[in-house]
Amino acid sequence: MFIINITYKVDLTEVESHLEKHIEYIKEEFSKGNFIASGKKNPRDGGIIISNLEDKAELEAILDRDPFKINDIAIFNIIEFLPTRVGKGYENLLK
């Protein structure tokens, strides 16, 4: 499992100009089952994606298609972790 911490490199005006395509990309990856959660950070200096993929190289290839990455809008920091405890109802996250 991975947490992707996205940090904007440009001002929000430029982020907004690529946001629609980024959202389309995110929706596509959710439909494929590659992402399980995503959202904006507060304060709004980027976002977070949680992926249940097991292979980092596969995830990196998927992230390379993100319009924010293609257009050099943000830095993508990938953090791998192995959940060992989860709250009730989230047992499916344990592998």
UniProtKB/TrEMBL annotation:
Superkingdom of the organism of origin: Bacteria
Family of the protein in this entry: Belongs to the YciI family.
Positions of the YCII-related domain: 6-81
Pfam families attached to this UniProt entry: YCII
Source species of the chain: Psychrilyobacter piezotolerans
Protein name: YCII-related domain-containing protein
Alphabetized Gene3D superfamilies for the sequence: Dimeric alpha+beta barrel (3.30.70.1060)
